[in-house]
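User: Predict structure, ligand adenosine-5'-triphosphate.
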Amino acid sequence: MKRIGLLGGSFDPPHHAHLALAHAALEHLQLDELRWLPAGDPWQKTRRLASAADREAMVRLAIEGEPRFVLDDRELRRSGASYTVDTLRELQAGEQAEWFLVLGQDQYANLHTWHDWPELLRRVTLAVAARAGIEPAPSELVAAAPHRMQVVPLPPLAVSATEIRERIAAGRDYTDMVPDAVARYIDRHHLYRGHPQELNGHP
Ligand code: ATP
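Assistant: Predicted complex:
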């Protein structure tokens, strides 16, 4: 059976830690495919995101050259809140595979706040990034619920989209945090140049 990983996020913008996580998942879980799922309307984030078209274009540029990386735009096209469990229901109704949901540790710790999380746990094996040898900590709720989990070893990477947006808004260099093609896209389209507070949900 095909082994498919799913990597969701706002990818605003996609950066080197996303790529490191995606490559680590490919290798460690021996995936046939890793699908990148940019979120349409991330319901837990209050700030304004770059447009769906810009985030889609940047993910496309970021994953270029790795044939096992696939962009799945279904959440971008969906109106209303974007719930991972809805995406899983859709995917699993159409395709037989072994499914892995790839997550950073921050999202794993927060998983009990996700829509229909117990159903989500039944549908996938979680693949959680962690420093080699250190078990990531879930919330008590998730720890108590039956779930399949694998650890994906990943060195700690001090990169986040928030940091990138803040640097750009402040006119500082950020280009070592994203692939060159993504940096060129950001510059060409003048993304993230607004006031940093506005970029973080306090307009
Ligand atoms: P933001 O700073 O805007 O909140 P982000 O950089 O955390 O964004 P997301 O698009 O929200 O990026 O994250 C997508 C996935 O990548 C999540 O599972 C997140 O945990 C993971 N991720 C992001 N940055 C890192 C990192 N430095 N190390 C490991 N995983 C990461």
